[in-house]
């Protein structure tokens, strides 16, 4: 299902580039997030809360408008910078990697301010995929050495508001903010050691999150009319 979703997602981008006025931009984002509910940690519980100043990553964002209309299609792909954590001491070693990736689509709007500038905004839904790998080693108790594979799928309501300035007929600069509201999350985790193998698969209880991610970027106008 994930494979079919990704193929459909990128097919929309390719088709739109040849049939309408398309804005295609690459952006860097950084902001903060608030989370509530269960996650992958062992001390997780439905009332757990966290505030993070993070969320740095990149977006590939597309707005598509047909027949000179001011309402069209909005498509976004986001890749947060991967997490890499290593913990060492004399007897203990921990290695942690996380890769967050999301795909979203919705309705986009534009408001023309002048010949060179626009305000654009959008609302839609996306799926956020988080893949994690953790490796734990303890030289004193090698039987407790563990490998943990985890992934999360989060369902979110996404929105975008930004300002676009055309350098020329084909290139523009843009800045704005992404706001994401997550309302459901599925967690799956498997751990393997010499002592046991465990698999956990469940919907996170009490889950909710909010992200505010300002961005800036550069874009290209394709097939402008």
Task: Tell me what the structure shows.
Helix content is 8%, strand content 70%. It has one domain (29-222): Porin. The protein contains one helix and ten strands. An eight-stranded antiparallel barrel has the order 1-2-3-5-6-7-8-10. Strand 8 and strand 9 (197-203) form a beta hairpin. It has one helix spanning 2-19; strands at residues 21-36, 49-65, 71-80, 83-88, 92-112, 117-138, 146-166, 171-193, 197-203, 208-222. The protein has 225 residues and is mainly β. It is elongated.
Produce a short descriptive summary:
The chain is mainly beta. It has one helix at residues 2-19; strands spanning 21-36, 49-65, 71-80, 83-88, 92-112, 117-138, 146-166, 171-193, 197-203, 208-222.
């Amino acid at each position: 299902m994930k494979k079919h979703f990704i193929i459909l997602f990128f097919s929309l981008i390719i088709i739109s580039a040849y049939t309408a006025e398309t804005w295609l931009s690459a952006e860097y984002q950084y902001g903060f997030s608030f989370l509530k509910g269960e996650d992958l940690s062992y001390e997780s519980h439905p009332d757990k809360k966290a505030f993070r100043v993070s969320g740095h990553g990149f977006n590939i964002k597309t707005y598509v408008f047909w027949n000179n209309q001011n309402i069209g299609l909005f498509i976004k792909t986001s890749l947060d910078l991967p997490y890499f954590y290593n913990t060492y001491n004399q007897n203990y070693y921990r290695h942690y990697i996380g890769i967050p990736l999301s795909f979203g689509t919705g309705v986009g709007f534009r408001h023309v301010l002048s010949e060179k500038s626009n305000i654009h905004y959008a609302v839609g839904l996306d799926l956020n995929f988080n893949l994690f790998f953790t490796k734990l080693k303890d030289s004193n108790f090698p039987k407790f050495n563990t490998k943990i594979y985890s992934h999360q799928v989060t369902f979110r309501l996404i929105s975008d508001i930004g300002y676009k300035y055309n350098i020329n007929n084909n290139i523009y600069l843009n800045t704005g903010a992404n706001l994401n509201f997550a309302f459901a999350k599925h967690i799956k985790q498997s751990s393997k050691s010499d002592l046991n193998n465990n698999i956990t698969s469940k919907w996170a209880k009490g889950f909710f999150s909010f992200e505010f991610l300002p961005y800036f970027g550069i874009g290209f106008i394709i097939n402008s009319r």
